[in-house]
Amino acid sequence: MRPQFRYNLISIKAVFIGVIMSTVVYQLCNGQHAVIEVGKLSAAPTNTLWLYLVLGAVFGGVGVMFNRLIFRTQDMFARLHGGELRKIVLMGGGLGGLCGVLALIQPEAAGGGFGLIPIAAAGNYTVGMLMFIFIARIVTTLLCFGSGAPGGIFAPMLALGTLFGTAFGLASSHLFPQYGIEPGTFAIAGMGALFAATVRAPLTGIVLVLEMTDNYQLILPMIITCLGATLVAQFLGGQPLYSSLLARTLEKQRAAEKTGKENTTNAVNT
């Protein structure tokens, strides 16, 4: 839990009630089906579980690198526009145009990513194509989120995890054909692993992805992958993404308030 907020039993009860009611209303209106349709996948064979640990370790490093690139991109854009509205508008328009052109040339590299996840998880791309889209989406995600453009980072993060996880699963199926590997299971594990490594919330990543894909039979490989990713990210000194973003926002607010007080004091003294 974040130290910036106070928690008590009443607030926790309110969260439980809100979650239960929202789930019931959603299922009454839309039925009981997966939010992300990837189909029902088979449970992972026991002799393949070590591959999920390797995948988690790789995602631990990827998550740390991803978080650091986000912070550096934010700092870069802050230096470029310097808070000037004209520069912000020009940069936003330029990035919007660039994303529009990219969506026409390579649609998989643009957008939120929810539509891409089922296609990638089904194994419709080669390993090389998956890695190309993965790198392209990292660049577009950094540019869009780092610039402060609306859109968020949750869906792009799941798409990135799916792309890399599927590529890892396809490569593993070629290297170890005797295992009978289903690449889609690594796609789901990758979604949770990248979330766990960047946000440092493995339990949330496990429950969230299994709930959204309706593949609860993959809970064991999910636990292995997400815990592996979290432990490696912690070992490498990575900081949780959302907590770091909140801390940076609060620090900027405090700096702005301090500057405002100093200006007021100087004006009074003058």
UniProtKB/TrEMBL annotation:
Keyword Ion transport on entry: yes
GO MF, one example: chloride channel activity
Keyword terms of this UniProt record: Chloride, Chloride channel, Ion channel, Ion transport, Membrane, Transmembrane, Transmembrane helix, Transport
Domain of life (superkingdom): Bacteria
Pfam families (UniProt xref): Voltage_CLC (PF00654)
Keyword Iron attached: no
Main subcellular location of this protein, as a coarse class: membrane
Protein's cellular compartments: Membrane
CC annotations in GO: chloride channel complex
Membrane spanning stretches: 7-28, 48-67, 88-105, 125-145, 157-176, 188-210, 217-236
Topology relative to the membrane: Multi-pass membrane protein
NCBIfam families xref list: PRK05277.1
Protein name per its UniProtKB record: H(+)/Cl(-) exchange transporter ClcA
Lineage: Bacteria, Pseudomonadati, Pseudomonadota, Gammaproteobacteria, Enterobacterales
